[in-house]
């Protein structure tokens, strides 16, 4: 399958941090991989998943490397938020203002960082409407957000937007008490289905 893959999708989830000793984002990404293995529809699309430590240094070092290594057609970053009640697609990310400590008690050095806001160039409104039409099948609702939280979720989103905003998406997922990992994975699968079909059309 990998040899004949017509394109590669890169999906990341985060490792543990704070009270999230098991991170719902990574559990959902692992479930997504299982769904993908059993999918006939996209047997020629290679799915690569990566677990990312909640570390600013790791993200700034490794995200460009992952882009270079896999040359993905779509990059979907996934992170957990205790505030969201459904799958939440973030629309933009800021270059600075990251003053919450990561798992190594570090923040990025923003001394020479110019203030910038980058937006995804994926049509997220259309994506949202499309996924919500099939809500009964996936059991997952999707909404849009303008506040990615100025922590590692927004930070990873910003790093990828710097590389290729036409291919980058970030989705916040609820914790286990709202959606099961399988439910969340179904929603992520529907999002990727829409993006891949759009790729094929273009």
UniProtKB/TrEMBL annotation:
Annotated family: Belongs to the peptidase C15 family.
Gene from which the chain derives: 105618680
Biological processes, Gene Ontology terms: proteolysis
InterPro entries xrefs: Peptidase_C15, Peptidase_C15-like, Peptidase_C15-like_sf
Protein name: Pyroglutamyl-peptidase 1
Superkingdom, natural source: Eukaryota
SUPFAM superfamilies found in the cross-reference section: Pyrrolidone carboxyl peptidase (pyroglutamate aminopeptidase) (SSF53182)
Any GO molecular function: pyroglutamyl-peptidase activity
Organism lineage: Eukaryota, Metazoa, Ecdysozoa, Arthropoda, Hexapoda
One GO CC term, this protein: cytosol
Parts of the chain that traverse the membrane: none
Sorted UniProt keywords: Cytoplasm, Hydrolase, Protease, Thiol protease
């Amino acid at each position: 399958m990998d040899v004949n893959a017509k394109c590669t999708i890169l999906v990341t989830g985060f490792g543990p941090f704070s009270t999230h000793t098991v991170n719902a984002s990574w559990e959902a990404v692992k479930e997504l991989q299982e769904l993908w293995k059993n999918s006939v529809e996209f047997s020629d699309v290679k799915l690569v998943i990566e677990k990312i430590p909640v570390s600013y240094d790791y993200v700034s070092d490794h995200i460009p490397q992952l882009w270079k290594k896999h040359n993905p057609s779509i990059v979907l970053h996934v992170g957990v938020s205790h505030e969201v009640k459904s799958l939440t697609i973030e629309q933009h990310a800021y270059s600075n203002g990251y003053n919450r400590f990561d798992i190594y008690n570090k923040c990025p050095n923003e001394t020479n960082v110019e203030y910038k806001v980058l937006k995804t160039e994926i049509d997220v409104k259309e994506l949202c409407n499309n996924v919500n039409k099939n809500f009964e099948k996936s059991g997952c609702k999707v909404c849009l957000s303008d506040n990615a939280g100025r922590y590692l979720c927004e930070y990873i989103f910003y790093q990828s937007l710097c590389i290729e905003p036409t291919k980058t998406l970030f989705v916040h997922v609820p914790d286990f008490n709202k959606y099961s990992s399988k439910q969340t994975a179904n929603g992520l699968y529907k999002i990727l289905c829409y993006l891949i079909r759009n790729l094929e059309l273009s």
